[in-house]
Amino acid sequence: QVQLVESGGGLVQAGDSLRLSCAASGRTFSNYDMGWFRQAPGKEREFVAAISWSGGTTYYADSVKGRFTISRDNAKNTMYLQMNSLKPEDTAVYYCAASKTRTIVTVLARTAVYDYWGRGTQVTVSS
Predict the structure, then answer these.
(1) Nearest-5° angle of CA 96, CA 57, CA 73?
(2) Does residue 126 contact residue 11 with C-beta atoms inside 8 Å?
(3) Contact residues for 79 (Cβ-Cβ < 8 A; gap 6+)
(4) Phi, psi of 112 (to 5 degrees)
(5) How confident is the model at residue 96 (pLDDT cuts 50, 70, 90)?
């Protein structure tokens, strides 16, 4: 089985930075596509970024492009989301997800393609 655990969330001020981590246990993720999503209260789950674990291809939502960077450490079975220049509208619960289906990166913006989800970590950006 596969388990995903997010960490690194917290309370920061606008303009600050945070790095989120997603640790995977069980099977390795060498052949898994992975992504980050976020959900604010009263809003639908929103795509943030995705990465092809083996290929190194990345894809970002327009709202975070240029500010966020998705990366991976295969030896540690861990995915990261470096968030810079944070804005109050970035406030949300951030979830990591893994997909066992290899596909083009644009498809990874859809929640239906993912097989495993973490429980989320809260990010709050104050003004």
Answers:
(1) 55
(2) yes
(3) 21, 22, 24, 29, 34, 36, 51, 53, 70, 71, 72, 73, 96
(4) -65, -20
(5) very high
CA 124 to chain centre: 16
The C-alpha atoms of residue 82 and residue 18 are separated, in whole angstroms, by 6
Tokens of 15: 């303009």
User: pLDDT digits over 49-76, tens only?
Assistant: 999 977 679 999 999 999 999 998 878 8
Q: Which of 1, 19, 2 is nearest to 94 (CA)?
A: 19
Per-residue pLDDT at 29: 65
- One-letter identity of residue 117: W
Q: What is the pLDDT of residues 21-44, one digit of tens each?
A: 999 987 666 678 999 999 999 999
pLDDT value for 28: 67
